Amino acid sequence: MGTSAHISVIGDETVVDGALDHGFERLVELEQRWSRFLPGSEVSQLNRSSGSPVVVSEETYRLIDAAVVAWHKTDGLFDPTIEATMAAAGYDRSFGEIDSAVTERTASHRAAPTPADIELAPYTRSVKLPDDVTIDLGGIAKGAAADLVVSELRAGGAEGCCINIGGDLRVDGATPRAQGWLIELDCPGSDESLAIGIQSGAVCTSTTLRRRWPGPRGEEHHIRNPIDGRPLESDLLSTTVVAASAAQAEVLTKVLLAAGSVGMSEVFRSTDTTGAAVASDGRIIVDDGFVPFAEAAQAPAVGGRS
């Protein structure tokens, strides 16, 4: 997934050891299925399918279905058919392997074709991509992986757990303190940081300031406008969303960047979520619903598990 992962588990020693082993094994397995950079992944098989249906695993089918639903719900602001757009811009391999000199010569902008014509067959778990469509599940895959592994660890006996995959964080069950898990949030674009206390749910952050590379028309970054394939322009430098699931929160961080500061309140209101953002001048903008989470971080630690 091109990032780091951290897993914290609450429970007796035997449960914790087993949960940690299972959690990291599952993350590796999910990366092997969902990475567009691994030739043997299910995503890569789909992208090579040339319009033929492909039977995929249950987890992959659910993820693609969720990505298509997210495209509909966000009026196209989130688009999983961005793979060719990213490759055309020079992001055609794992980020650490990008050759900036080659990228500067070859990068171009290409609109995403949209998932409107993707065919999903639930009874056979087959996915058929149109011949001109390839997918990049990117951030939503990280969020979905965090959601899935937390659910499995809890079902396996963990009293509580917290998983952070490159800034996509999901918690559930017992917490180390009565006010929830204490999370220190990075706020890219600001010299300040935020802390929250969260009992259950997810918090995800996205930014246009990272994963950047030189292109022929200026600096490129990995968050694209699917309509024209260009780097997304926004008066926000980073966005943080608190939601019920990490998959939902991850999608909405991108929607917030597209909506900008004037659209923040409406995004939160219409999705029953909350969060914060860093404006282009470095100011941190906090939604009203975010305040209780920030207050929970400031409260004296009592109760919980150590």
Commentary on this structure:
By secondary structure, this protein is of the alpha+beta class. The protein has a single domain (5-298), classed as Roll (T-fold), CATH 3.10.520.10. The chain is built from eight helices and 14 strands. The chain has helices at residues 13-34, 42-47, 58-73, 83-88, 100-106, 138-155, 246-271, 291-298; strands at residues 5-10, 54-55, 119-121, 126-128, 160-165, 168-173, 181-185, 194-198, 201-207, 212-215, 218-221, 236-243, 274-279, 284-286. The strands form four sheets. A seven-stranded antiparallel β-sheet has the order 1-5-6-9-12-13-14, with helices on one face. Strands 2-4-3 form a three-stranded antiparallel β-sheet, covered by helices on one side. α1 (13-34) runs antiparallel to α6 (138-155) and α6 crosses α7 (246-271). The longest helix has 26 residues, at 246-271.
Estimated radius of gyration = 19 Å
Question: Share of helix among residues?
Answer: 25-40%
Q: Give the count of helical stretches.
A: 8
Q: What's the overall average pLDDT, rounded?
A: 89
CATH level 1 name: Alpha Beta
Approximately how much beta-strand content do the residues carry? Answer: 15-25%
Low-confidence stretches: none
The tally of beta strands, per DSSP, is 14
| CA-CA gap between termini | 30 Å
The domain tally reads 1
Can you tell me the CATH architecture? Roll
Alpha-beta content class: alpha+beta
CATH topology name, in short, is: T-fold
What attributes does this structure have?
single chain; 306 residues; alpha+beta; T-fold; seven-stranded antiparallel beta sheet; three-stranded antiparallel beta sheet; 14 strands; globular
